[in-house]
């Protein structure tokens, strides 16, 4: 399974900070019902055994909705559960090495903050780029700000799809119109909301409008 541009419209990245008594499975299911087009499981502190069990459950859930399921950073977990792919940052395993480990049919996403990083990731086999943080974000403390002009320049420089990430919500997503991105990746704009399904549907409508502007 390789990356389809339309699958990247509304890319939901999990975060267990806002579970509030719910399970991650329930939250992801609500996001999928609301129209999320891509799911990335991001776990920085979970032990391997629980991470593996959770990844298997969520992969099955995403299959039911026909939505790609990726693992953040952890190539071993992605391989073990046969996820659709993996997303890596600049300090993680390089895209070419990930491809060698996972195979030709898997989706590899790479984070980029500059045109140079974007071109190198494309050259090494990335299927899409996540560019950000495009707005201030509390989710990722070490995120570097990426101005609109850089986002636009990256979109113009590469042939692979580009999504924006970082501090994006229903209120500011329109500011990204005209940049060339095919979608957005969000965390709190979905998973920190009381009504996840409704918030996802509202955000998706706003993103569709922005992308087509």
Can you give me a brief rundown of this structure?
This protein has 8 helices and 8 strands.
Task: Give the CATH level 1 class.
Answer: Alpha Beta
Radius of gyration, rounded? 16 Å
Could you give me the name of the CATH homologous superfamily? Aldolase class I
Q: Which CATH architecture would you pick?
A: Alpha-Beta Barrel
Domain Thiamine phosphate synthase/TenI: 10-190
Function: Condenses 4-methyl-5-(beta-hydroxyethyl)thiazole monophosphate (THZ-P) and 2-methyl-4-amino-5-hydroxymethyl pyrimidine pyrophosphate (HMP-PP) to form thiamine monophosphate (TMP).
Cofactor: Mg(2+)
GO molecular function: magnesium ion binding; thiamine-phosphate diphosphorylase activity
What does this molecule look like?
This protein has 213 residues and is α/β, with parallel strands linked by helices. The protein has a single domain (5-211), classed as Aldolase class I (TIM Barrel). It has helices at 24-34, 48-65, 75-81, 95-102, 115-123, 148-157, 188-191, 196-211, and strands at 10-13, 38-41, 69-72, 85-88, 107-112, 128-132, 162-165, 183-186. An eight-stranded parallel beta barrel has the order 1-2-3-4-5-6-7-8, surrounded by seven helices. The radius of gyration is 16 Å and the shape is globular. The two termini are 29 Å apart. 48% of the residues are buried. The mean pLDDT is 95. This is Thiamine-phosphate synthase. Condenses 4-methyl-5-(beta-hydroxyethyl)thiazole monophosphate (THZ-P) and 2-methyl-4-amino-5-hydroxymethyl pyrimidine pyrophosphate (HMP-PP) to form thiamine monophosphate (TMP). It holds the Pfam family TMP-TENI.
């Amino acid at each position: 399974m390789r990356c389809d541009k339309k699958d990247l419209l509304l890319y939901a990245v999990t975060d267990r900070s806002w579970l509030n008594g719910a399970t991650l499975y329930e939250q992801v299911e609500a996001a999928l019902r609301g129209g999320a087009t891509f799911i990335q499981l991001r776990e920085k502190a979970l032990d391997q055994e629980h991470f593996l069990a959770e990844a298997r459950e969520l992969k099955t859930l995403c299959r039911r909705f026909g939505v790609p399921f990726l693992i953040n950073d952890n190539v071993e977990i992605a391989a073990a559960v046969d996820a659709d792919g993996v997303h890596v940052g600049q300090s993680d395993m390089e895209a070419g090495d990930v491809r060698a480990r996972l195979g030709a049919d898997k989706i590899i996403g790479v984070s980029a903050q500059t045109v140079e990083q974007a071109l190198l990731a494309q050259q090494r086999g990335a299927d899409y780029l996540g560019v950000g943080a495009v707005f201030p974000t509390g989710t990722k403390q070490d995120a570097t700000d990426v101005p609109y002009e850089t986002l636009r320049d990256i979109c113009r420089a590469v042939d692979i799809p580009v999504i924006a990430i970082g501090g994006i919500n229903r209120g500011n997503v329109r500011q990204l119109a005209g940049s060339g991105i095919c979608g957005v990746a969000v965390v709190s704009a979905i998973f920190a909301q009381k009504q996840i399904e409704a918030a996802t549907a509202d955000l998706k409508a706003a993103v569709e409008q922005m992308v087509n502007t």
